[in-house]
Fold these 2 entries.
Entry 1:
Amino acid sequence: MPAPLFPAPLTLTSGMPARDAWPLDPSVIHLNHGSFGAVPSVVVAQQDALRRRADLSPVEWFPRIAERVQEARERTAPFVGARAEDSAFVPNASAAATVVFNALRLDAGDEILVTDQGYGAITMGAERLARRFGATVRAVAVPLLASDDEIVQLFADELRPSTRLIVVDQITSPTARLLPTRRIADAAAEHGVRTLVDGAHAPGLVPDAAAVAGGDWWFGNMHKWPCAPRGSALLVTTAPDRDELWPLIDSWAAREPYPSRFDTQGTIDATTYLATPTAIDFIESEFGWAAARTAMAEIADAGAELIAEALRPYSDEDPLTPLPSPVPSMRLVRLPLGLGATREEADALRMDLLDEVGVETAFTSFRGVGYFRLSAHLYNEASDYEAFVERCIPQILRRAGIRQADSLVLP
Ligand SMILES: Cc1ncc(COP(=O)(O)O)c(C=O)c1O
């Protein structure tokens, strides 16, 4: 098997290596952008500068915070293909889902459809909504390799007269694939069923993510792939009843309509929102977002192949799991049988490998099978994936009870 081809390490327009633009600990290997993002130094500096301004003159800063957040909304919403007047800043995807769930009224016996690839914490929110009204939650089983057509059909088949709401991911968390949310939502709307699209991973990976998602409400994290400071997400909706949506903190803008009532949240640190346009502009001006997506895909493909090749001698099935609708920056590599079979085990493996061999990873679990969910951002290089092979594969094989060949030879 020829060695996978990695693109040359990326550089900024100044010639500086891209990886030096992020203040990540160089003694740690960072292969899990997907979970918590990573903030470039220029964005950290911008947020620090904003905080300094707030500290220099709190009375200048806080009474004008709504204007500042509105301006940040105006600069951020177009990045996801939305209008500022349809977009509210919230701290994260979980908060956006909570805002929508808090607004909904169901009747006893109503049903919410989620999927078995949904994000657990958001599904728990849907369950709490259902409990408040004596409704139920049912998970549509979406096979790992189902085509878009099959998935649209699955949802159409699962709709019942009692179904009121669908909660569906634009990019799934355990399996890192795109789902045809617009088609699912359009078909549901014909039956009067509303759709909440969880686009937590979509900004930056899907051009105009909110515009293409469909559904009644969409949300996405700016602190994942766009590299904004953590605590920055957008909720977007044109739903006619959107004035029922309330921020999680009641505050002075409570008499304002959606979305401006979200711009004031008592005395909070809104610098995460205000520094978000700096992150978007940084990647656009240094790499271009379209080129960035292409580069992430090239790095992800090569990284996944390198790791899969190292696991092949120990696997009955090909560990590389090519998905029908992949995203640019994440890939799934199947773990040896029995490893990461539950979410708890997958999470424990993540922490063990960080503590024992200094590699940040994400392992996911789907239907009793564990996967390495590999991430690739612009700071990742071939050496990161080589380090995974050298440091993590021996640990993974040992945990799976597999005797390793004498030396792991990098292709
Ligand atoms: C699909 C999905 N939804 C929601 C979330 C929650 O995001 P946050 O922790 O920023 O609220 C995540 C986080 O990874 C996710 O992958």
Note: The CA atoms of residues 90 and 102 lie 14 Å apart.
Entry 2:
Amino acid sequence: MATRLLLLRLFPRAVRATAPASIRAMSAGGIPTDEEQATGLELKSMQALKRGEDPYNVLKPKKYPGTREEPHIVPSIGDKRLVGCICEEDNSTIIWFWVHKGDSHRCPQCGSYYKLTHYELPH
Ligand SMILES: [Zn+2]
């Protein structure tokens, strides 16, 4: 290392010309971005997020008020799904009920509306 630094100081052009290609490429190109390093599922997920899609549920789900006009959305791959409603923030009990495909369903305790939407698995 010390010899290389001494030679670089004395003959800078000669030493740089003999440096390995990998060292020159890294010093010239900088640090690769996440998109340049991503492969496989991570790359597919990043490309989908750029298109505005979220096939792997990476993002936080959107919140709905739970009214008749804007019910809570319940994604499902089938025709029904079991839903647990914590009606109030401090409740220690969960009200369980089935939400079926079609019209929105109402929680029997608090009255919030839930609607089932079809969810297609990405793979
Ligand atoms: Zn409820």
Note: The longest strand covers residues 80-85.
